[in-house]
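Final report, results section. Input specification for complex C-07:
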Amino acid sequence: MDLENQKRIKDLAETHGNENVVVVLGGAEAEASGLAAETVTAGDPTFAGPLAGVQLGLSVYHITEEAVKEVVNSDVYEEQVGMMEMVLPVEEIASEMSQFRG
Amino acid sequence: MSFAVVKAASYTLAHTPDFIPFGSTPTTAKARDDQEYFAALKNGLRSFDDVVNYPPNQCYVGNITPHQLGEVAQPWYQDAAAGERTGRYGDIMPQVEFYALLKASDAFDLVALTPEFIEVANPKLAAHPLLKRYTLDASKAMAATDMHAMLEAHKAEPLKMDGELVGIVKQAHDEDENLSAHIMLENLTVKATGVHAALCLEAQGVDLSEVEYIIECSEEACGDINQRGGGNFAKAIGEMIGCASATGSDLRGFCAAPAHSLIHAAALVKGGAFKSVLVVAGGAVAKLGMNSREHLAKDMPVLEDCLAGFAFLVTENDGVSPIVNTDIIGRLNVGAGSSPQAVTSALVSEPLNAVGRKITDIDRYSAEMQNPEITKPAGAGDVPEANFKMIAALAVKEGQLERKDLLSFVKNHGMPGFALTQGHIPSGVPYLGHGRDAIMNGEINSFMVIGKGSLFLGRMTNLFDGISTVVEKNPGVQEAAGFDKDEARRLVAQAMQDVAARLAE
Amino acid sequence: MLKDKKVVILGDRDGVPGPAIEECVKTAGADVVFSTTECFV
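Structure output:
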């Protein structure tokens, strides 16, 4: 994950408390989404950024996951994300993401 | 007024392994003294032959079609068949020629080369059909020891061959960071690779002296402290390639700029301001090795090891070449929003609907043509395929395609990505050469060029950008308005009959 | 799940971009504190 973004997330988690912050991803691909999820939960697996060795344990979801879809207005969801559901490897992403939630 | 036509298109690469450290990712790694990365990088470099043989590169310069590329087993970087450096549309240049061209492009004595390098490079230039017009002046060579002094004082950037110092690019000003050695290196690279691309049009029979306007559409900015993006790479390139009758300017729009440029060029010609417009773009140093960290982690070679360029010529209607149908322009207006479906509707279905055509009427879509072998490990997925799926999904939504035919639409109306991730380079236009040929050969009638740009990277707006148009078969020479051949024949025949009738009276 | 949470959005140019995710999560009562879109191309 971009180092600047890692820094921003770290700061925001400090400001608002880890339990209050939720990260929502829009990645095009399962593995990369998983890496981003890992970074904000267990720490930066590439040990390159400010989150290296930092276990924030934030809640993290991909926008195409059922749990997110359920709480978003369905018309807005359809308008903003509907088409990408047909394009992205939704199931693969969901299974990758589930690994990073307790 | 008649539509403008795509007269020719060229595509070039310069293999620059020793330039990879100037890329954004390696620069960041250097700042962190990431020795592990640099050790891996060294082992991940490809030879010039590997770069030439690499199937997507063979497709880019025109030795194989995108369809043929699709039939080559992946991974493409393994066991590639032997290819030629020169193709129907362009040329793949080794680093020695690139450095020589960098010096030839230098108007301010900023590039210095060692005498040993010049001795090696001049015969290479002389042997190149397009570069033989340039010769390096051996009397202006600089000894490597003098170069080391400038490098140590941080007043220059090194030009290396296999790690050995053969030259430098000097800073153009002591204090102005806009003229630093690094920026001069980036900008001279745009100029040199742009020159290479434009010259390849000459090899296709284009007379560059007849060009009237040049649009340069890469992603760099040239200027000094008072006008950082002041510009005009266009005229700097034109000066080098014999466009004495042309003026020009630069057009910027992130990765969408080439698609914007195609439309600008077509409009300038159709509107009558200029008869012949050259669009040209050089390569982006910053993107060398951009995703190399991810590639190396997967034991892949560093695939972003080349600088890319392209050029294409848009002229008045010749009655034969494919037209740029500017009646169909997909535009992502400021108020359009940036959801993927809003973008796809604005760029594809809305402009087609406006002229009564369907998504399925367009034979090929050339969206963003990034090579998926580069983008997938980086987490961006298969970008062209995602674009074709979105277009197909839109066709399903609009009732023009059965849902079960979604994947066959992707296969039949799309193509595998074959362009380097050099930002603006993949933007729809890599297919202009292949698409032009496919139309001329009667394989297809039309294709849509789609460019998209991430404007938010400039931190001026959160907006996304995109623009599209259609290139299609030339309907043939249109007679001037008010003159219809058949009608004229009928009138002449009628008059003769009248005369004959009067004579008979 | 998102209601009254401080939401960080990491969109993707070639997946779902930040602003589109933002529109969605706002309807779930989230407070978006940071939204960005990554670009790998």
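The two ends of chain A are 22 Å apart (CA to CA). The longest helix of chain A spans residues 3-16. This concludes the modelling results for the funded period.
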